[in-house]
From TrEMBL:
Entry note: cofactor: Binds 1 zinc ion per subunit.
Coiled coil: none
Necessary cofactors: Zn(2+)
Single GO term (MF): DNA-binding transcription factor activity
UniProt xrefs under InterPro entries: FUR, WH-like_DNA-bd_sf, WH_DNA-bd_sf
Lineage: Bacteria, Pseudomonadati, Bacteroidota, Cytophagia, Cytophagales
Residues where Zn(2+) binds: C96, C99, C132, C135
Keyword Zinc in annotation: yes
SUPFAM superfamilies, A to Z: Winged helix' DNA-binding domain
Name of this chain's protein: Fur family transcriptional regulator, ferric uptake regulator
Pfam families associated with the record: FUR
Entry keyword set: Metal-binding, Zinc
């Protein structure tokens, strides 16, 4: 597993440090998006700044995307293979009001919204809130 993660980091031009490999292994093993606090809980001896920088590096290199789900805590999830996290690749996210988990819905794409002239799109987000299948 770590060999594949090492290659995944190298493919994104990210130097595969021990912490980056551990963080990527943790994120890839989760079924839902994770927050910085989730990473801190998983690696309680790791430095918060190192974990934050790891997430930001992953995001800048297109390995993960960030999700603002309205909880006040940014969540991160792995990007799909071939995704550039450009607006045309953006997908819907689901936030469960009961378990507080955020789940990517990659098959549900956010449509391109035509903007007036001189408007520049910088970010797109669509979060559906409700109750997930596990909590129903």
């Amino acid at each position: 597993m770590l060999k594949n993660l090492d290659k995944l980091l190298q493919d994104k031009n990210i130097r595969p440090t021990a912490m980056r490999l551990l963080a990527l292994e943790y994120i890839s093993s989760q079924q839902t998006a994770v927050s910085l606090s989730d990473l801190e809980a998983a690696f309680h001896r790791a430095d918060r700044i190192t974990l934050y920088r790891t997430l930001k590096t992953f995001e800048e290199k297109g390995l993960v995307h960030s999700i603002m789900d309205g909880t006040g805590s940014v969540k991160y999830a792995l990007c799909e293979e071939g995704c550039e996290c450009a607006p045309e690749d953006m997908h819907v996210h689901f936030f469960c009001n009961k378990c507080q988990e955020t789940i990517c819905l990659p098959k549900s794409r956010i449509p391109k919204i035509p903007l007036p002239d001189n408007f520049k799109q910088e970010e797109v987000s669509l979060v559906i809130k409700g109750t997930c299948g596990s909590c129903s």
